[in-house]
Every structure is written in structure tokens, then in C-alpha cells.
Amino acid sequence: MDLMEKNLELVEIQKLEGHTDRVWSVAWNPVSSHADGVSPVLASCSGDNTVRIWEQSSLSRSWTCKTVLEETHTRTVRSCAWSPSGELLATASFDGTTGIWKNYGSDFECIATLEGHENEVKSVSWNASGSYLATCSRDKSVWIWEVLEGNEYECAAVLSEHTQDVKMVQWHPTMDVLFSCSYDDTIKVWWSQDCDGEFECVQTLGESNNGHSSTVWAISFNATGDKMVTCSDDRTLKIWGTDIARMQSGEEYVPWSHLCTLSGYHDRTIYSAHWSRDDIIASGAGDDAIRLFVDSHDSVDGPSYNLLLKKNKAHDNDVNCVQWSRGEGDRLLASASDDGMVKIWQVATKP
Amino acid sequence: MVSGLINENPIIYPKKERRLRTDSSNTDEFTPEPIDQLEIFDHIRDIKDPEHPNTLEDLRVVTEDSVEVDDDNSYVRVTFTPTMEHCSMATIIGLCVRVKLLRSLPARYKIDIRVAPGSHATEDAVNKQLNDKERVAAALENPNLVEMVDECLLPSAE
After folding, report:
1. What is the pTM of this model?
2. Alpha helix (H) ranges present in chain B?
3. For residue A226, which of A196, A200, A256, A181 has the smallest C-alpha distance?
4. A181 near A216, Cβ under 8 Å?
5. What percent of chain B is helix, strand and coil (3-state, nearest 5)?
6. Is A76 within 8 Å of B110 when comparing Cβ atoms?
7. Residue span of the signal peptide, if any (chain B) (predicted)?
8. Average pLDDT of the residues in A3-15
9. For residue B2, what pLDDT is reported?
10. A47 to chain B: which residues are within 8 Å by CB?
11. What is the ipTM of this complex?
């Protein structure tokens, strides 16, 4: 199925209002989607210091705010991430802490608060099995936390090799390899040789490896984990790849290399990029637009991405985050913006 | 007496007479006037320098020409010239300009702030900080910094 040939558009399904300040991030609960017979659930976090949980009614198909997680973080909540089981939500805040919330029916309770960072926590990510949590901060460090019994979290590593503010951390989708990106313009890869929790920086993707020339804001992997996309203040998207089979079978680390750069498509900072399960890359940028890219399969040398569509004025202000839903085939996209809104979109064929 | 100021003897330029606006061309009262260079300069000219009882206009930190505006595309760029090459107040000044414009311009506006090329020892570092909105947002959650900015933004009693 060649997506480029279909006449596709991004249709706004619903606008979710409620936050009283800019919305920084959204995260889909990995477990719920209509396919599972469970209503899809989305979390959003904001400069209003709260997290909102939104649920879609299976009857009316409309989204409502189920709960507001408030009175815990005392400053902006910058990002949030659901655990792989969907039972826990981690929230990263400018107040320097990371909250862990558990869903008890219709309520959420903060069951743990992770402290340690010296200043604003920017991002939080769970590994594939839910045994590790990673956080990063303006204090330039990346912390890895071990998830223990009884709501206990223990700091397993403090990794201080970035030279500036770390913007995002993201675990590889299948392996316990951690990736971080920073205001220092680089992406770093952290790996534990003996899987004993001793992580070290095994690779830095910087300008000399065809890397970005300004702050890298986000990282996203494709479903198989052999490719990743990064986005930057340098207004480009970069695609990177590795030999995942070799990496998964062997004992040694297999480096990532630059595959292609998408430049000339964005004229403001790109804050977010997300790779869908069916290979569409979505980007959210400072020009209020959402763009979708697909591999045209034109090139024999590797991936060659083309713009599938551009949604101008997707929001009234900067798009801070774009996230594809986890369900198979529904092609739902959630976006968060400085305009205080969360929007749900659907990729559909033009009538 | 040592005052500890970074720039003890700033050059204060003579005040320019303010041009009166005489817009007779647009007679339709419902069409909003396009925002122009002078309007944006009017928002920032009276911002007080963090160290001296003078405005950014007095010290020629900003001038009318330091404002580049494209109203059709909702874009503005302000280039400011710190009084000294090693001025550590540069980021504060830049932050004040940004905050004043955020509070004064329509939300559709994209605002870029930079130091005049060649006017500051760490110009790239200053520019990067001033244009990283996440850093700006975090800085503006710091009550001490907000107090300092608000002081600079207070209209002076003249």
C-alpha cells in the first residue's frame, strides 16, 4: 500500500479544552484502545502544573476529561509517560521531581516521588519491560531508576556526559539501551554491557556524524527498533539506523549511523517527532503546523522520506508534541500546543 | 565609592522626539491596523536597563531599526546591542524584551530576540538561551527573576 498515492488528509476529530496554560506533552496509555475493548486513554501535561487524563466514550465516541492530577507538582509538568502495563503514569516536572501515579478506578494517587535532580526534570521514559525508568534534566544529567517491589524506586545510575540541558530520554522499544538528546546538539546512547545496571555512554551522535547543528528536542523509534528519527532547533529531521539483528544477537554494541536528513520542510524549531507503527513520521513545530512524512521507497541506498501532508494552523500556536495512538490501524494522532489545547486527529482519505 | 556595576559610565544618548502617528489613510474603523516597526519599538523603548535608571532607548540598546517586523507572517525580530561586550546583563535584557512583547503583541506573533552580531563576547550562547522557549518558561517560574524583569518593565514616573 503506497501512502503517497492515496489522497490523504489530517482531520480534526476533537479539541480537548481544560488546561489553563500551554500543554507540553501527551501520552497514550499503551494498553487501552478500542481494539482491546477498552476505551482509549490519553494523558496531557501542562504549564498549569497539572496532568489531565482524557478518555473516549465507546458510546458517544467523544472525549472527556476523566481526572485532573493536581496539587502535587508545584511547577510546570513537562512530560509524562505510561508504564508498559498501563497501570502507572510517570510525570516529569520543573519542580525537580518525577511523580509516579497509580490508577485506582476513577482516581489517581501519587504513590512515589523521585527526587535527586538539581533543577527542572524535562523527560521521563520507561523501558520495554517496565523494570527501568529514566529521567533527564537541565542539570545535564540522565538518571536511571530501578523499579522495585512495593512502589520503591532506586537510583541505579547518574550519567553526566552531556555538556548542557538534556531535553528528552527514550528507551529503545525492545532492548535496554537508553537514548538522550540535548541542548548540546548531540544524541547520546547509553548501554550496559553485562546488563548489570552499569550504564555507560557508548556513542555520541554529533555534528561530526552528520548530526544536528542545534538543540535536539526529541527522539522516536520505528516499531522494529532498527531506525529512529530525531528533530531539532536546526529545523531538520534526521533518520538514523542500526543493524538491529546483529545488536540483538551479539554481545557487543552496534553503532547507529545517519541515514538521511529532511531539511527545507520546516521554518521554525521542530519540537516533536513521532514514528507510527505503520511507518508515518509526524512532526510538530514552532510554526503551528503538523507535518507527516513517509518513505517513498524510491532510493536503493536507504530510506528517502517525502512530505505526505502539511496541516497549517493545526493549532493557534506552537505544536509541542505529536503522538500516534498505539492501536493498530486507527491512525489517530494527538497533539499538544502552546495554545492550551490538546487535539485528536485522524488520517483519512479525502472524500 | 565602588558601586559594583558592570558598566559604570554608560553613554546616555539625547532623547529623540517621539513621532506622532497621523494615520489618515485607513478610514475603516473595523480593520485592525497592521503592526509596524514603530509600534513594536514603542513597546520596548521604555524598558529600563537592569543596572541604570535609563531606558534601553536612552542607552541605544534598542533603536527603531533594531526591530524587524513582518505583520503578514506574524513575525518580529529584535536585535539589541548591550552597552558592553562582556555584559552579563545581556540575557536579562533579552528576557525583558521578550516578556514585554509577549504581553503586548497578539498571540499569533513569533518573536526572535538576538544580540547585535559582534556586540557580545558570547553572542551565540546568549542567543541560544534567549530563543529556547523551554528555558525561558522555566526562568519565568523563578520568582526572583520575574521580580527583576517586572522592575525593568515598570513604567518610570516622568
Report:
1. 0.94
2. 37-44, 90-104, 123-130, 133-139, 143-153
3. A256
4. yes
5. 35, 10, 55
6. no
7. none
8. 88
9. 47
10. 137
11. 0.94
